[in-house]
Amino acid sequence: MTKRQVILAAHFPGVNNTTVWSDPAAGSQIEFSSFEHLARTAERGRFDFFFLAEGLRLREQRGRIHDLDVVGRPDSLTVLGALAAVTTHLGLTATVNATFNEPLDLARRLATLDHLSGGRAGWNVVTSSDAFTGANFRRGGYLDRADRYTRAAEVLQTARELWDTWPAGEPVADAATGVFTRTADPGAFVHKGRHIDIAGSFGVPRSPQGRPLIIQAGDSDAGRDFAAADADAIFSRHGTIEAGKAFYDDVKGRMARYGRRPEQLKILPAATFALGDTEDEARERAHHVRRQQVSPQTAILLLEQLWNKDLSDFDPEGPLPAFDPVLDADSIIKGRTRLFDDPLATANEWRALAQEKGLGIRDLIIEVTGRQTFIGTPASVAATIDDSVQQGAADGFILVPHIVPGGLDEFVDTVVPLLQERGVLRTEYTTTTLRGHLGLDHD
Amino acid sequence: MTEGLHLAVALDDAGWHPGAWREPGARPAELLTAGYWTDLVRHAERGRLDFVTIEDRGASAPGGPPDDERTDLVRGRLDALLIAARVAPLTSHIGLVPSVVTTHTEPFHVSTQLATLDYVSRGRAGWRVQIARDAGRDVDDLVAEAADHVEVVRRLWDSWEDGAEIRDVATGRFVDRERLHYVDFAGRHFSVKGPSITPRPPQGQPIVAALAHGRHVYEFAAAGADVVFVTPTGPDSARAIAAEVRALTDRPVKIFADLIVYLGRRPDGELPESDAHTFEGTPGDLADLLAEWHAAGLDGFRLRPGVLPADLLSIVDDVVPALRERGLFRTEYEAGTLRGHLGLERPASRYAASGPVRSAGVAA
């Protein structure tokens, strides 16, 4: 029996502390050459797609723009449009907010990208409602939190209706008979719903994939249902085999309710990695990267996010605060979701761990945040990825390099050939569209 | 090149004549492909033109059905800014100026999209400001909204000063937050806080262009645009319009005349009515006309080819050489950015001078 194939995606390193900028190898976060390098590397590794995150307002902490992390990013779909010119097969996907974009405009841009890339477009549908981000937009922070998913679902539904307006085969464009379109208004549409009430003529004829790939990233109950009902892929946080299996079974188990088969939804955890010639070397490199990711200043800042208080007087090498986190004030951090459900319990755990291992603030933060998903030799990492997919913990992974633009080079040079030897990753593309790569039907 | 004129072409579907798609050499089945647009822009770049514009009417305007029941007209089109981005890596010098609508769209998104086009083209982006028709609103209101829109977009481009990214390992700081600025715009149609999420684009301020047919839009264009497309009917009206627009502003605004051009075979019958002067004749005659209007005070021309690619090819292969013979057009690009082609300086950020003083030493 053929083994299940591993789906691989490349995440352009994000705007947060896990992207290392202090290393001499770190390049520009904004120049097109960085995007081009990473995309070409992913295509050389026969990856399924390239992935971009989104952030529509610069993060702030304690009322000031956050200055310690990589910051500054392009408009995602515009960069993907340019990447379509320098790649031939790689899927091109972007996170685009369903709250701060109008469905008509979004559907038009995504369908355009699908045309201009020959069927390689994908959309990670996210939603937010915060007034902080809304201050950059006409709409403002108008949406009740409870309405986020109902609006997102309706935006997606509307986009699908728009993508379906033009019949296949239109436009005819037959110069001999003079018929450009069979009907005068092939894009005619009406959508009347709770959040969206529009009518008119959709401007973009049906694109190569019919509908761009739909990705979903939320982890809540509502988010999981949204994915089970409507998504083609999930960007999940559950990278370990145990947690991955539980998530995988849960989400795929919901699909029958929506009349869908489990293989119609691909579950793709985010994954970071550190490679070495030996397991020891990989561990050392992993630790070195973690120290780069958590500078002394970043350690204090991350500690402040739990304590919800100015801790700038604390020594990064010294002990944790003896007092408890502040619970009754507004969050000091804006532009990012709250990280801790129970700050008191987490603070107690951290203090206990620091005590037990004799760790100062910085080493403690390194210990409790963001350890790499895969640490090992290329052979052991390839085996772990293969096992995760064969055991039903994931359909593949969205790899997040820690450095721009070369962060994926080593993985593609060393792990990819081993995955290909194992027969779980294509050696050449046999399909041309993103849906084709993932084994999904064209809508 | 101070004596020379600037030349752009306006790309629209199969050409500006509604029947252009049926002409020999037209590629009506490829209007939605990257290859079609890439070929057109490369032709224009081969002619060393300043820029191309790409038409678009946006998505957000209340659409409604077409005004007619005809099935012999081109319907359906792609987003112009994405076409420009798709073509950018495959070209090296020519400016890329998509139409982007201001009516109903988010200035924040438009700002980052154009800044990104400037990054992916390495300094060749422009924006043809397009006001959508909206039956429910009067023109003054739509123009006022467009003016606010341009102001916000421009502020956002400046909201990261040059050099805001410092990568200072000693202090752990990636950016100098003193060089990032809120734009704090509050207007009738929108309020925008800022700063941008995108660092200042390569040109600082990508080129803003607008088509203006009368006094009201001249004022808008003179206040906010770098390039104004106007529609004179002859050298005298060219002189009058150029003087009128220049009198409205101290800014270095470049004035281009729009002309629809037919240089060879075209669909039978009478030529359609148009907002711009229609030229039909030989490349040599067109070169003479451009020289005469240029002498009357215009900086350049945006030619709208009646039939694509035929009239574009004729512009590049016949009109451009005729202009060069008259010493009126470049033989090679002398700059790598659109601002450079137009002879416009890269401006400093508006926030750079007025920002907070960072240390006592800086002021000295």
Describe what you observe in this structure.
The complex is a heterodimer of chains A (443) and B (364). Chain A has 443 residues and is of the alpha/beta class. Chain A has 2 domains: 7-277 and 374-437, Alpha-Beta Barrel (TIM Barrel), CATH 3.20.20; 295-368, no CATH class. Helix content of chain A is 37%, strand content 14%. In chain A, the strands form 4 sheets. Chain A has an 8-stranded parallel barrel, surrounded by 5 helices. In chain A, strands 4-3-13 form a 3-stranded antiparallel β-sheet, with no helix packed on it. Chain A is globular. Chain A starts with 6 loop residues before the first strand and ends in a 6-residue tail after the last helix. The longest helix of chain B is centred in the middle third of the chain and has 20 residues, at 139-158. In chain B, the strands form 3 sheets. Chain B has an 8-stranded parallel beta barrel with strand order 1-2-3-4-9-10-11-13, surrounded by 7 helices. Chain B has a two-stranded antiparallel ribbon with strand order 5-6. In chain B, strands 7-8 form a two-stranded antiparallel sheet. Chain B has 364 residues and is of the alpha/beta class. Chain B starts with 5 loop residues before the first strand and ends with a helix. Chain B contains 11 helices and 13 strands. The radius of gyration of chain B is 21 Å and the shape is globular. Chain B has helices spanning 34-46, 80-87, 107-120, 139-158, 215-224, 235-246, 283-295, 310-325, 338-342, 350-354, 360-363, and strands spanning 6-11, 51-54, 95-101, 126-130, 165-168, 173-175, 185-186, 191-192, 207-211, 227-230, 254-262, 277-280, 300-305. Chain B has one domain (6-342): TIM Barrel (Alpha-Beta Barrel).
Secondary-structure map with pairings?
The complex is a heterodimer of chains A (about 450) and B (about 375).
Chain A: E1 7-11, H1 32-44, E2 49-52, E3 60-61, E4 64-65, H2 76-86, E5 91-97, H3 103-116, E6 121-126, H4 131-134, H5 148-163, E7 188-192, E8 197-201, E9 213-216, H6 221-230, E10 233-236, H7 241-254, E11 266-271, E12 273-275, H8 279-293, H9 296-307, E13 333-334, H10 343-357, H11 361-368, E14 374-376, H12 378-390, E15 396-399, H13 409-421, H14 434-437
Helix pairs in contact in A: 2-3, 3-5, 6-7, 9-11, 12-13
Chain B: E1 6-11, H1 34-46, E2 51-54, H2 80-87, E3 95-101, H3 107-120, E4 126-130, H4 139-158, E5 165-168, E6 173-175, E7 185-186, E8 191-192, E9 207-211, H5 215-224, E10 227-230, H6 235-246, E11 254-262, E12 277-280, H7 283-295, E13 300-305, H8 310-325, H9 338-342, H10 350-354, H11 360-363
Parallel strand pairs in B: 1-2, 1-13, 2-3, 3-4, 4-9, 9-10, 10-11, 11-12, 11-13
Antiparallel strand pairs in B: 5-6, 7-8
Helix pairs in contact in B: 3-4, 4-5, 6-7, 7-8
